[in-house]
Amino acid sequence: MKAFGKALAAAALALVTASAARAQDVTLDVFYAFPAFAKFHEPIAAEFMKTHPNIKINFRAPAASYDEGHQAMLRQSVTNQLPDVYYSGFHLLTELADTLEKRKQLVDLGPLLKAEPQDWVKANYSDALLSLGQVNGKQVGLAFNASTPLMYYNADLVKKAGGDPDKMPDTWADVLALAKKIRNGDTAGMAYNIHDWPDDWLWRGVVLQSGSPLLSPDGKKVAFGGETGEKLLAMLRSFVTEGGMPLIDWDQSRQQFIAGKIGIFFDTPARLRQVTDLVGDRFTLRTALFPIDDKAKGKLPTGGNAALITAKDPTKQKAAWEFIKFVTGPEAQKIVVETAGYMPTNLRAGDDAFLGPFYKQNANFRTINGQVSRAAPWEGYPGGNSVRIWRQQREVIAGVMRGEIQPKAGIERIVSETEALMK
């Protein structure tokens, strides 16, 4: 009887323990942009769930772009159908945070960071990295992906055209001069797919590298108008007329580069792994720093996204914080860099225990880290119309590149339309 009683008690204890464990199980609803990025989101989630068996990661269908994801989040905010974790594009972070905070739908990560051991915080996140996820001095997210525009090039075509594959040009005039030499028959000298890019990242790239800020000091006017903007649009037109750039969409352009039909190609480092694998041994693929005309003041927009917590339930908020710490940690960032090509957003990620050996063997992936000193915030426009502003700017830019709009008329239209929407 005593044995039976002990067995019964043990069974009861096991039942209570199992019930408690099930009670602690949490499923996080996670939303991100770009379906192709499942290649690193999925394995990172799998690794996280191995070490956090009580937390399950459930991904919503990815948004087609940051802009599309942003619009979805604004709609879901109204209907209270937000995910628990969202990866917001940096350029839309302020607009989204302002909207969600008004409805008390966004978790302030500042207190959560302060509750962590400060030695751990300093070992993993620099002030610059933390600033990428800040809005109005508040830590609304942690940077997950970070990138600046990168030059990809076909070293074989560069050499054939008389260029030096080991010393690529670092100004736009010299890039265009080399592209003209590469251009031959159905082979284009270069491609810079700003005319159909899903957001204004590449446009900001040419603006900021010229030394011009995006907005006036008071944030109420466009700062790249007049002669500066006219020259930039004229330069973009010359990519087509002199560099032979085909005005096809950015995915087709990437495929043409991979096929050896474009000499110099500008893209996000996030697709470096994909391009590397697809090029294979067709030609020698190399990467170089983005050209900067104003070496003193030139900057580059930091693309990528920050992970936010929009969960309302305290248990889910706690689980989401564990998830965000993991995805911005060195193990997850190692997966991101090796799978895609982004800059790591964790200070420890470059250590020998993580990415050190990989960088030593893959110089093309290391290039992007040489642009960290020029990385500037990718901020949205005031007024809540950032997505609409870019779509109208892009329409004008595409018209200039097609030769349908003159650069002077184009920049005047961009300035007037942008400032009207900023109000």
TrEMBL record:
Pfam family, one: SBP_bac_1
Name of the featured protein: ABC transporter substrate-binding protein
UniProt-annotated location(s): Periplasm
InterPro entries reported for this sequence: Bact_solute-bd_prot1, SBP
Signal peptide stretch: 1-23
Residue ranges of coiled coil: none
Superkingdom, natural source: Bacteria
Taxonomic source organism: Alsobacter soli
Alphabetical list of CDD domains matching this protein: PBP2_UgpB
Family (UniProt): Belongs to the bacterial solute-binding protein 1 family.
One annotated Gene Ontology cellular component of this protein: periplasmic space
Keywords recorded for this protein, A-Z: Periplasm, Signal
